[in-house]
UniProtKB/TrEMBL annotation:
Family indicated by similarity: Belongs to the peptidase M15D family.
Cofactor: Zn(2+)
The record's free-text note on cofactor binding: Binds 1 zinc ion per subunit.
Organism: Aequorivita vladivostokensis
Positions of Zn(2+) binding: H115, D122, H182
Lineage: superkingdom: Bacteria
Name of the protein: D-alanyl-D-alanine dipeptidase
Length: 201
């Protein structure tokens, strides 16, 4: 193999690795989202503040897909409210230490969470006027009421869930059975698990 080819491959792989670790701040791309980053407060299933600041970081193509999804919802009179985005692996370990239940918390010593890759979001919808949209349970509720295959709800709640789930799937996001709020970007297997701290001032 020639020196020129070795140099080319080195820089190619270095650039790819750097790209794989890149994250963008959603607030730098749009002002049309609403945020309630629960893990930056004690109002979460752990009962402790886990993030030093309330930021939503994502892989660039995941952020772009979310922007498109939000535009779709806005045209229907809604907007996305964000509960969580990228989550450092160290935070995942704290969650697992408190709740070692893989049905609800990704095992950081196994495959972890897609949140640790910057390729998943926890979201809901609200109206463009800022009104609450009922989804049948609170965020991070660990029980049957949060499952997307539970249809024991009013027509309004079922319609709200269908709007959210169908809309997100249109833009490349997949669901998980136990959490109506969780959406993983379809190509997440290509991303590395990260432990980069949130950019807090």
């Amino acid at each position: 193999m020639s020196l020129a080819l070795i140099t080319f491959l080195f820089f190619s792989f270095s650039s790819e690795e750097k790209f794989q670790e890149s994250l963008v701040n959603l607030k730098d791309l749009s002002t049309e989202f609403v945020y309630e980053i629960r893990y930056a407060t004690p109002n979460n299933f752990i009962g402790e503040t886990l993030y030093d600041c309330a930021e939503c970081l994502l892989r660039p193509e995941v952020a772009e897909a979310l922007l498109q999804a939000n535009q779709y919802f806005c045209e229907k009179g809604f907007r996305i409210k964000i509960y969580d985005c990228y989550r450092p692996l160290d935070v995942q370990k704290k969650m697992w230490a408190k709740v070692p239940r893989p049905t609800y918390v990704g095992n950081p010593y196994g495959n972890g969470s897609i949140h640790n890759k910057g390729a998943a979001v926890d979201i809901t919808l609200e109206t463009l006027e800022g009104c609450y949209v009922e989804m049948g349970s609170d965020y991070d509720y660990f029980g049957r009421e949060a499952h997307i295959d539970n249809y024991n709800f009013s027509k309004e709640i079922l319609a709200n869930r269908k709007l959210l789930i169908d809309g997100m799937r249109m833009f490349g996001f997949n669901t998980i059975r136990t959490e109506w709020w969780h959406f993983s970007y379809k190509r997440n297997w290509s991303y590395k698990t990260l432990n980069v701290p949130l950019p807090c001032d």
